[in-house]
Amino acid sequence: MIVSNHPTPLVSVVIPAYNEELAIKHDIEIIQAALDGAGYDWELIVVDDGSQDRTAEIAESLGAVVLRHALNKGTGGARSTGVRYAKGEIIIMTDADGTYPNQDMP
Q1: What is residue 104's DSSP assignment?
Q2: pLDDT higher than 60, residue 1
Q3: How confident is the model over 48-91, as pLDDT tens digits?
Q4: Tell me, which fold does domain 2-98 have in CATH?
């Protein structure tokens, strides 16, 4: 999903995720609120890195673009997939496990 508010650079947020069904909803909602509040045009890309849970399903239900790896390729592999797909002039990478304070984005 690309959300367009006005003519600003498109921001792509890439989130590698592996079995993060308990955290992904909260992370996506925080990121969406931060980017909407800043007035950016944005897209949110979740790379499901071979999860065996509902990570991809939850992310899709919240409007994220979900790219899937059949097998886990690690964080670096998931980030590379997301960056290759991203359309933004600005690319932000974060993690689904809460390592970084997404509410401080951008």
Answers
A1: G
A2: no
A3: 999 999 999 999 999 999 999 999 999 999 999 999 999 999 99
A4: Spore Coat Polysaccharide Biosynthesis Protein SpsA; Chain A (3.90.550)
